[in-house]
Design goal:
heterodimer; A: mainly alpha; Helix Hairpins; 5 helices; disordered N terminus; B: mainly alpha; elongated
C-alpha cells in the first residue's frame, strides 16, 4: 500500500501558506514560473506546474488536502519534508556536558 | 562504617569513626577513620566546597602526618579543585620528578581537567612544554570539529601523544568529526578508544544516544539534553526507532511490533514530544492494519490516540485502502465521523464546498458497499439515529442517493452530477436517473450532458418526440459539441431502424437524408449510408437498387467482407430476417484470410463509430482464430483491438484470446491487450484474470490512460462487462490494485508466453499448474486454489465447486466467497454439501462456514423451509451433471434468447 511516493508539499513548493486563496496561489505560481522557465529548468517547471494543478482552485485544494494523507506512509513522515540534520553548535554545549561529573 | 562510606553518608561515617577510635584506638580504627576522612573530603569536593575540603585535609595531615605520603593523589585533587592549575602542574618542571607523583598528577589531569583553555594557559610550565601545547591544539581542534565539517587528515594532532593524559581528548575529537561526517562506524570506533575514567568519557553515552544505538542511556542531565536538542541528533535516534518499528510492522510479527512501538514512543517523548499525539495516531492506525485491537496498542503507546479530525481522516483512509468490502463500509462510517468532528473543529462549514467534496467521496464509497452488507450494519445501529442536524443518520449514510444529493446541493458542479447520474443509471427505476438529470439541468443550465441523458431515456421508453425536444435543447446550447452530434446521429439512426422494423422504408428514407446532412458522408461513412439505403431498397424489393448500393458500399470500403458485415450489423440492429433484407450469407471460401480479417476489422471500426457494433457470425470464429494467428496476415494495433472487442461482444473468448496473443507478442499496447486477455479467460482462473487486470491497470496508470483505467477499475471492482459475468466479488487485498514493477513484468512475460487458450480447472495439465501457471511459480502462490491443498483426485470436485458457486443465489454466493477469503476450505464446503443430501439441514449447517450457515438461517427466518434450502443447494450442485460450466451455460442461454440479435450496447 501507499506504497508511498512522498511528493513534495505543493504549498511549500509554491511558497504559500496553507490558508492562501486562489489569487495568492496563482501569483506564487507565476513567480515560480519566472524563476523556473520550462526551457531552462524543465524538471523544476514540471514540479511547479503539478503543484499548481493540485492547488489551483478551492475544490482541488480540499481534495488534495483530504486524500493525500497516507496512513501507511513511512512513520518518519511525521517529521514532514525536512531531513534530519546534525547542526554545528560550537564547543560550548559539548564542554557543558564535560563539566558535569 | 563501610556501609556508611559507600552509602555516601561520609559525615556520619567520620563522627562514628572518631568515636570508635577515641574509645578503642588501634591501627585498624585509625585506618577506618582515615577512610572516613577521605570520603568526607571527596564529598565536600563533589559539592564544590573546595575551601572546606582543603581545611579538613590540612587538619587531618596535621594530626596524622603519615597520611601525607599516602594521600598524595587526594592532595592533588584538592589542589585541582581549587582551580589552581599553575600550582597543580608546577611539579612537571622538576626534571627529577618522582615517576609515581607524575603518574598521580597525570591521572588527575585525565580524570578531572575539563577546561583545556585554562590548561593551555598555565604559566608555571616553560614555553613549549608538551602539556599546554597539547591542550592548545586540542582546544583549537574541538572548536573546529564542532563548528564546521573537517577531514580526518586535518586532525593529525601530533602534539598529543597516545600516552598523554589528554589522549582521550584526541579520540573524542576524532569521534565528533566522524559524527558530523555521518561516518557513524568510525565515530563508534573512536568512542571505544576513549578511556572510561577520563573526562571525555562523559560524552560517550550522549554520543551513543545521538548515534541511535539501541539501549542508549537516558539523558537525565540538562546539559546532555541541551546538546542533543541543539544538534538535532536526537531526531536521528528517533528516526532509527521508527525505522525499527517499520521493519517489525512489515514483518507482521506481533511481539516485536509492540516492543518497538514502545521504544519509538519513548524516543518521541525524549526528543520530539511535540510529535507525540501525531505519532500515536499513526502507529495505532498502522497497528490496526496489521490486526491489533485498539486496547492492545493503547498500553504501549502510553495512552489513547487523540480522537480529532486528523485521526478519523487517517482511520478512514486506511480502512478505505484496505480494499475489503467490510472495511469499505467501515471507512464510510469513519469518514462520516471525520466530517462531524471536522465540522466541530471548524475545518470547514456544513453544506460548504468542502462538505460537498467529502460527501461526494462518501457517496462513491456507499455505492460500492453491497446492499446486504449495509443492511447488516444498519441492524447494529438505530437506522434513524443522529446526534446533530449536520450528522447523517446511519440509513442516510448508506444511501448513495442521499449522499449524492447532499454533495450536489453543497457543491453543485458538473462532475458531481455526472457521478450521481452514473450511479442512478445503474438503478432499476429509470425515473431515478431522470430526476438526477433534471436537477443537474437546474443547477448547471449550460451542461448538455443531462439533456443528452434525458434524450436517451425518452428514446428508450419510445417517447421519440420528447427525445427530439431534448436534442433540440442540447443543440441550442452547443450545436458543435461532438457528444451532441453523436447523440443526434444515434437518435436519427434509431428512428431509421425503428422504421425498418415497422417495414416503413419510405419513412426511413427521410431519416437517412437527415443522417446524410448531419454526417456529410464520404469514404467509409458514405458506405454506411449506402448500407442503410440498401436495406430500404431491400424492403421495397428493389433488387437493382440493392445491388447498386451494395456495389457503392463495397467501393467505398474497398472490401466485400466489410460491406457484408456492415449490412449484417444493420439488419441485426433492425431485428430483420436476413432474407427479408435480401442478405445472403457470405461464402467464406471465396475470400482470403487477409480479406476476411481486414474486412471485419474495417466494418467493426465503422460500426463502432456510428453506434452499430458489429457481431461476428458464429461460423466465422474458427477461421478468424486461425487467420489471427497467421503472421502472414498483417494487422495493426487498432485492427487487432477492434477485432478483440468484437470477439468479446460476440461471445468468442477463444478468438479474443488469439487476438490478445498476437497483440501481446507485438507489444506497444500491453495494457489494452492484457485487458482483452483478462476478459477472454474462462471461469475458474479468477486469480490469473485479476493479475491481468491489475497489471493492465498499472500500465494504464503509467500511460495516463484514464479511460482504460476507469474500465479496468470497474472490472476489478466486480462490475464486469466480460462475457462470463463472474467474479461479482473481487475486492482487492490490503495491497490494493497497484502492482510492483517486478511482478508486473512477470505477469506480462507469463501472459506473452501463453499461446494456448487455458482449459478449465478439471483439465489442468499434468504439470499441475493452474491455468497454465506452474505450481512453483511466484504467481501460483496467489492462486485462488492452492494445488497443494487439493490433490489431483479432487479436481473434478473443484470444477464442480466453480459451478456450484456460480449457480448459488447472489447473497449466498457472496457469503461463501467471503468465507473462502477468510480461510474456509472450498473442498470441505463442497464435500459437506454433496454429502449433506441425506442429512437434516441442521447437520449440514454444522459443517458449513458460519457465515454461510448464518445466511441460510436468515433465509429460513425469512420464510424459506428447510426443504426448500436443501433443494436449492441440491439443485445448484446437480447442475454439474450437465457437464457444462456456468459460463458455457450462460453463453448458451444468451444465444437462445437473443438469437439473431447481437447486443447493441446502449443504443436500444
Amino acid at each position: 500500500m501507499e506504497k508511498t511516493n512522498l511528493l513534495p508539499d505543493p504549498w511549500e513548493l509554491l511558497g504559500v501558506a496553507r490558508e492562501a486563496g486562489d489569487e495568492q496561489i496563482r501569483a506564487a505560481y507565476l513567480r515560480k514560473l519566472k524563476q523556473f522557465p520550462p526551457d531552462r529548468n524543465p524538471a523544476e517547471f514540471e514540479q511547479v506546474r503539478d503543484a499548481y494543478e493540485l492547488l489551483r482552485d478551492r475544490r482541488q485544494r480540499f481534495r488534495y488536502f483530504l486524500f493525500s494523507t497516507d496512513p501507511l506512509a513511512p512513520l518518519d513522515s511525521v517529521f514532514g519534508s525536512a531531513s534530519s540534520q546534525r547542526n554545528f553548535v560550537g564547543p560550548e554545549p559539548w564542554l557543558e556536558v564535560l563539566k558535569e561529573k | 562504617m563501610r556501609e556508611l562510606i559507600e552509602g555516601k553518608h561520609s559525615k556520619a561515617a567520620v563522627e562514628t569513626a572518631k568515636e570508635l577510635h577515641k574509645r578503642h584506638p588501634t591501627p585498624s580504627s585509625e585506618a577506618l577513620l582515615m577512610d572516613a576522612y577521605q570520603a568526607r573530603i571527596r564529598s565536600l569536593m563533589e559539592h564544590g566546597m573546595s575551601i572546606e575540603a582543603r581545611s579538613l585535609l590540612n587538619l587531618v595531615i596535621q594530626r596524622f602526618p603519615p597520611v601525607r605520603t599516602r594521600w598524595e593523589q587526594l592532595v592533588l585533587e584538592v589542589r585541582m579543585q581549587e582551580g589552581n592549575l599553575d600550582e597543580f602542574v608546577a611539579p612537571f618542571t622538576d626534571p627529577n620528578l618522582d615517576p609515581f607523583l607524575r603518574e598521580k598528577i597525570e591521572t588527575v589531569i585525565r580524570q578531572r581537567v575539563f577546561d583545556l583553555t585554562a590548561l593551555a594557559q598555565v604559566s608555571s610550565l616553560p614555553p613549549g612544554h608538551g602539556l599546554p601545547e597539547a591542550a592548545k591544539a586540542l582546544t583549537a581542534a574541538l572548536k573546529a570539529v564542532t563548528s564546521r565539517p573537517t577531514d580526518e587528515a586535518d586532525l593529525f594532532l601530533s602534539e598529543v601523544s597516545r600516552r598523554s593524559p589528554l589522549g582521550s581528548w584526541k579520540a573524542l575529537i576524532h569521534a565528533i568529526a566522524a559524527f558530523y561526517r555521518r561516518d557513524d562506524t568510525s565515530c563508534r570506533r573512536w568512542l571505544q578508544t576513549v578511556r572510561s575514567d577520563s573526562v571525555p568519557a562523559r560524552l560517550v553515552p550522549v554520543m551513543q544516544v545521538m548515534l541511535g544505538s539501541e539501549g542508549g542511556v537516558s539523558l537525565s542531565s540538562a546539559a546532555a539534553q541541551n546538546l542533543v536538542a541543539a544538534i538535532g541528533a536526537g531526531e536521528e535516534a528517533f528516526r532509527q526507532a521508527l525505522a525499527d518499528l517499520e521493519t517489525a510492522l512489515a514483518a507482521k510479527k506481533r511481539p516485536p511490533i509492540l516492543e518497538r512501538a514502545r521504544a519509538a514512543m519513548s524516543a518521541c517523548e525524549r526528543f520530539r514530544p511535540d510529535l507525540r499525539d501525531r505519532l500515536r495516531q499513526y502507529i495505532s492506525v498502522r497497528c490496526m492494519v496489521v490486526g491489533f485491537r485498539p486496547n492492545q496498542v493503547r498500553r504501549v503507546l502510553g495512552g489513547t490516540p487523540r480522537n480529532d479530525a486528523r485521526w478519523y481522516q487517517l482511520m478512514a483512509t486506511a480502512l478505505e485502502r484496505s480494499g475489503y468490502l467490510e472495511s469499505l463500509a467501515h471507512s464510510l462510517i469513519a469518514w462520516e465521523t471525520f466530517r462531524v468532528v471536522a465540522l466541530e473543529e471548524k475545518w470547514f462549514a456544513a453544506e460548504s464546498l468542502e462538505d460537498g467534496v467529502l460527501l461526494l467521496h462518501m457517496a462513491g464509497l456507499a455505492a460500492r458497499v453491497p446492499a446486504d452488507l449495509a443492511e447488516e450494519l444498519l441492524q447494529l445501529a438505530d437506522p434513524e439515529d443522529s446526534v446533530s442536524q449536520a450528522e447523517l443518520t446511519p440509513r442516510q449514510l448508506f444511501s448513495p442517493d442521499v449522499l449524492y444529493a447532499r454533495a450536489c446541493a453543497a457543491d453543485p458542479h458538473s462532475e458531481a452530477f455526472q457521478f450521481w447520474l452514473g450511479w442512478a443509471k445503474k438503478q432499476r427505476d429509470w425515473r431515478a436517473a431522470d430526476q438526477v438529470a433534471e436537477r443537474w439541468r437546474q443547477a448547471c443550465g449550460k451542461d448538455v450532458a443531462p439533456l443528452l441523458w434525458l434524450m436517451e431515456s425518452s428514446e428508450k421508453r419510445g417517447a421519440y418526440q420528447k427525445s427530439l425536444k431534448y436534442l433540440h435543447q442540447a443543440e441550442q446550447l452547443d450545436r458543435l459539441n461532438p457528444e451532441v452530434r453523436k447523440a443526434k446521429l444515434r437518435l436519427l439512426l434509431a428512428d431509421v431502424l425503428r422504421h425498418f422494423r415497422q417495414r416503413k422504408p419510405h419513412l426511413a428514407k427521410s431519416g437517412i437524408e437527415r443522417i446524410e446532412s448531419l454526417l456529410e458522408p464520404a469514404g467509409s461513412l458514405a458506405a454506411f449510408t449506402n448500407a442503410l439505403r440498401r436495406i430500404c431498397a431491400a424492403l421495397e424489393k428493389d433488387h437493382d437498387a440493392v445491388r447498386r448500393h451494395r456495389a457503392e458500399a463495397e467501393g467505398h470500403l474497398g472490401n466485400p467482407v466489410a460491406a457484408y458485415v456492415l449490412d449484417r450489423g444493420i439488419v441485426d440492429a433492425a431485428v430483420l430476417a436476413p432474407e427479408e433484407a435480401l442478405l445472403t450469407p457470405l461464402d467464406l471460401s471465396s475470400h482470403t484470410g487477409g480479406t476476411l480479417v481486414k474486412g471485419l476489422a474495417k466494418a467493426c471500426l465503422l460500426g463502432d463509430s456510428v453506434g452499430i457494433p458489429a457481431a461476428i457470425p458464429e461460423n466465422w470464429k474458427d477461421r478468424l482464430r486461425t487467420c489471427c494467428m497467421d503472421p502472414a496476415i498483417a494487422l495493426d494495433t487498432a485492427e487487432m483491438l477492434v477485432l478483440g472487442e468484437a470477439a468479446i461482444r460476440s461471445q468468442a473468448p477463444e478468438l479474443a484470446f488469439a487476438v490478445s496473443v498476437r497483440g501481446l507478442a507485438r507489444g506497444g499496447a500491453d495494457a489494452r491487450f492484457l485487458f482483452l486477455r483478462a476478459r477472454s479467460l474462462p471461469p475458474g482462473v479468477s486469480e490469473r484474470r485479476a493479475d491481468c487486470l491489475s497489471a493492465a491497470l498499472e500500465l494504464a496508470h503509467r500511460e495516463g490512460n484514464k479511460d482504460l483505467a476507469g474500465k479496468l477499475l470497474e472490472e476489478l471492482r466486480g462490475r464486469p462487462g466480460n462475457m462470463f459475468e463472474r467474479d461479482d466479488f473481487l475486492a482487492p487485498g490490503p495491497e490494493g490494485y497497484s502492482m510492483e514493477t517486478g511482478f508486473l513484468n512477470q505477469v506480462l512475460a507469463d501472459e506473452r508466453a501463453q499461446k494456448q487458450y487455458p482449459m478449465l480447472a478439471r483439465h489442468v495439465p499434468a504439470s499441475g499448474g493452474i491455468a497454465g501457471i506452474p505450481v512453483n511459480h511466484p504467481r501460483a502462490k496467489h492462486a485462488f486454489y492452492e494445488p497443494e491443498e487439493f490433490p489431483e483426485e479432487e479436481e473434478e470436485d473443484l470444477a464442480d465447486f466453480e459451478d456450484f458457486l456460480t449457480n448459488l443465489p447472489p447473497k449466498l454466493r457472496r457469503e461463501l466467497t467471503l468465507a473462502i477469503a477468510r480461510g474456509a476450505s472450498p473442498e470441505a464446503i463442497l464435500k459437506g454439501i454433496l454429502s449433506g443430501r441425506s442429512r437434516e439441514l441442521e447437520s449440514l449447517l454444522k459443517i458449513l462456514p458460519p457465515e454461510l450457515a448464518r445466511e441460510i438461517r436468515k433465509a429460513i427466518a425469512d420464510g424459506a423451509t428447510a426443504e426448500q434450502v436443501l433443494n436449492e443447494l441440491e439443485a445448484a450442485v446437480s447442475h454439474r451433471d450437465s457437464g457444462k460450466t456456468a459460463g458455457q451455460r450462460q453463453m448458451r442461454n444468451k444465444g437462445k434468447s437473443e438469437a439473431g440479435r447481437p447486443q447493441q450496447g446502449s443504443l436500444f
